[in-house]
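Can't attach files on this board, so I'm pasting raw text. These are the components:
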Amino acid sequence: MSTATRSLPRTIGAHAILLTYTAIALAPVILVIMNSFKSRAGIFGAPLTPPTPKTFDLIGYTTVIGQGDFIHYFQNSLVVTVASLFFVLLFGAMAAFALSEYRFRGNSLMGLYLALGIMIPIRLGTVAILQLMVASGLVNTLTALILVYTAQGLPLAVFILSEFMKQVSDDLKNAGRIDGLSEYTIFFRLVLPLVRPSMATVAVFTMIPIWNDLWFPLILAPSEETKTVTLGAQLFLGQFVTNWNAILAALSLAIMPVLILYIIFSRQLIRGITSGAVK
Amino acid sequence: MGSLNIESVKKAFGPVEVLKGINLEVNDGEFVVFVGPSGCGKSTLLRVIAGLEDSTSGRVVIDGQDVSATPPAKRGIAMVFQTYALYPHLTVRNNMGLGLKQAGTPGAEIERRIGIASSMLSLEPYLERRPAELSGGQRQRVAIGRAVVREPKLFLFDEPLSNLDAALRVNTRLEIAQLHRRLKATMIYVTHDQVEAMTLADKIVVLNAGRIEQIGGPMELYNSPANEFVAGFIGSPKMNFVDGARLGETAKTIGVRPEHLTVDPTSGSWKGTVVHAEHLGADTNLYLDCEKAGLITVRIFGVYDAEPGATLYATPDPAKTYRFGADGKVLK
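---
Top answer:
Structure tokens for the assembled complex are below.
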């Protein structure tokens, strides 16, 4: 069944590589989910086997849910992620529009300045950020986290989106101007829908590190009311005893919201990644 | 209601001067075509008229009103773009109506105007479709319809036919000509295609390197070009330019159009060999390498058999020969 463009050995080779990669990528996730449904003895006795009727146990989940606050941690994580995502996309897209659309003095310098954050990790500034938050009384608030994550996500968003906005036809924007649309309407109604795939790309790349972050919640908002899921899961990690059932259950639950958001964005995402290359 | 005056308009992008002082007067109801090679500033001039670019200096006056500081939507203009620039998320009906809705026109009036425009451009069957479901020609008609609906003082066309294939281009050209006749509106049309310019225009403005080279009717430009640039730009195939000194003339350059040369196998002014022959049916283009005149093009009406390598004599029509001075201007 060889054809001009593909031969059987090559097809098998390619699939073997891809399947291996998939297995490596999924194995830890599957392991976590599998073991979250097992009793403590089951986890330690045979960590690699799926739950059997003998080892099946929901103790992890009952502990997590019974802990009461956990729902609250989830809420915090969700609020922080969604709010940061919203601001990153909004301000990122606006800055990208300005950079790609308007000619002004220092345009390219401004673009470089806004993209600088991609190269400098925001964690280098942790001490200064903490001082800033203490001074402004924002410690132990979700606002602090949202502000930091917005700053963290913006450079990449501006960088990617301005590339895509440059591809939006000038004629279309000018047609809008002649029809009397305001610059805001042109931005929201004409340009944003056309760069939606790239917005989804940016959303996914921004969302995952925020959801998974432990560093800033630990430093800026460790209080009971503002704990995020990743920080909350630390509750079960003790110096002497670690409640693995609860940790694995918490992690399994923590995967769900990101997974849902990812599925929402992924259809757009694939178009976003390929659209630059093909057209 | 639709005159336009451009008074010493200059436009610079940083250090690059794209328009170097343009003065132009367009009367009500005229069809004016800006033509010139790419980079000559014709599109920039159109954008300055539309208000999409601010001029560096000078005034744009529409209907006696200085609009230099008026935003595009308030200038009473409508523009048709090369890439159609339809709103992808709106139906044809809403594409046409958006400008009016934005200006606060009552709904019934918008409907009435869309009805007129869509019947004029035979767009009725497509009113509820989105641009993605239309062909290139239909999209450009919608774009024209969007302009018609606004009943502007001034229509601006920015190379509207460049994205269409050859057959459609001829059809749409015809439609634009008819539209002008029906609406009697002032239209300004930018193109780099001199055939479009010749067929559509009441008045052609030839631009080169940010300056107006000549303004005139199509036949005026063809018959009495002001300088070498216009002579070379208008007419196809291009006018032949021969070094005056080689012919023993006082003028710097002698110009003669390919259709104003006759050929004879036995005698004539310029002896040459046929390099290549293009047979188009209705006429034949011969490329001759002449001893005195260099490589020239001759256009012969009808069929003419000439093999490459054959010797022919070309003779210019003395009444239709142009003489250019050292500065490129025509010598009278």
